[in-house]
Amino acid sequence: TQLLEQSPQFLSIQEGENLTVYCNSSSVFSSLQWYRQEPGEGPVLLVTVVTGGEVKKLKRLTFQFGDARKDSSLHITAAQPGDTGLYLCAGSFGTDKLIFGTGTRLQVFP
Amino acid sequence: SQTIHQWPATLVQPVGSPLSLECTVEGTSNPNLYWYRQAAGRGLQLLFYSVGIGQISSEVPQNLSASRPQDRQFILSSKKLLLSDSGFYLCAWSVLGVGGYTFGSGTRLTVV
Questions:
Q1: Could you say which DSSP state residue B99 is in?
Q2: Which of A69, A100, B33, B88 is disulfide-compatible with B43, CB 3.0–4.6 A?
Q3: CATH number (domain holding residue A77)
Q4: ∠ Cα B74 A43 B44 (to 5°)
Q5: Are B32 and B96 in contact (CB under 8 A)?
Q6: pLDDT tier at A94, thresholds 50, 70, 90
Q7: pLDDT at A2 (0 to 100)
Q8: pLDDT-based confidence at A20, cuts 50/70/90?
Q9: CA separation for the pair B83, B63 (Å, rounded)
Q10: pLDDT tens, A44-82?
Q11: What is d(CA B33, CA A13) in angstroms, rounded to the nearest whole number?
Q12: Annotated domain spans of chain B
C-alpha cells in the first residue's frame, strides 16, 4: 500500500514566523501536488512538481521535490493568518489517480 | 469555464436509509471523475474513480457504490447507510495528462 506521511500533523504559530511541512513516502512519485483546504470546502491545488530536485515558488510559499522523488516540502515565509488551513500533499505513481497525504493543519495567529 | 457542482452540502440520514450524492461537471469533456471521503481534518481516501461512462473502479471494499450514467455525471450511492459511512464526501475531476484535480465543495454526511 502506498502511503504518504506528512509532518507535523498540527502546527500553531504566530504571524510572521516561518514554517516547513514535510511529505514523505517509501515509493517514487511520478509527480506530486500540494493542496490547501479550508473548513467545509474542497482542496484547492497550489502547485504540481514533476522533476526530482525541482523548486517552485508561489509568493511566500516555496515547494521542493526531493532528488529521488520520494519526498517533498512546503516552506512558508512570514506566515499570515490567511495561510491558515489544511495542507495536503498528493502523489501520483504513474496513473491519473492521486494518493493523498495525512494532512498538516496550520493555524496562524495574528 | 470549467466548474463542478456537488450536492447536497449537508445531509443527515438515519442508519439503514439509502443514499444518493450527485456530482456534475461543466466545461470539459471526458473527464476522469473521483469520489473521496475525508475523516475530520485529515487526508482523503479514494473511494471510486471513473475514466468513462459506465466505467467504475472501486478502491476499497465498503457499503457504497458509484455510477456514471453520463459523461459529466458521477453518483455515489448506498442501499443502507451505516454509522461508519459518516464523513465529508468530495467529488473531483481531472483531465488525463493535465495536472491537478478540481474538487467540488463537498457533502457533509452524518448518519444517525
A1: E
A2: A100
A3: 2.60.40.10
A4: 70
A5: yes
A6: confident
A7: 59
A8: very high
A9: 11
A10: 999 999 999 999 999 999 999 999 999 999 999 999 999
A11: 37
A12: 3-111
- The residue segments making up the domain with residue A9 are 5-109
Res B96 pLDDT > 80? no
Q: Return all residues near A59 (Cβ < 8 A) that are at least 6 apart.
A: none
Q: Residue A26 has which C-alpha cell?
A: 517509501
Helix (H), strand (E) at residue B27: none
Residue A106 has a CB neighbour count (10 Å cut-off) of: 20
pLDDT of residue A3: 76
* Contact (CB<8Å) A88/B101: no
**Residue of chain A whose Cα is closest to the Cα of B39:** A102
pLDDT in tens, A21-30: 999 998 898 8
Q: CA quadruple A40, A46, A48, A52: dihedral positive or negative?
A: negative
pLDDT score for A75: 98
**pLDDT on residue B98:** 62
Domain tally, chain A: 1
Provide the grid cell at B68: 456514471
Determine the distance in angstroms separating the CA of B78 from the nearest CA of chain A, rounded to an integer. Answer: 22
Residues A17-37 as b or e (16 or more Cβ within 10 Å = b): eebebbbbbeeebebbbbbbb
User: What's the CATH code, domain B3-111?
Assistant: 2.60.40.10
| Residues of chain B neighbouring A88 (CB-CB closer than 8 A) | 43-44
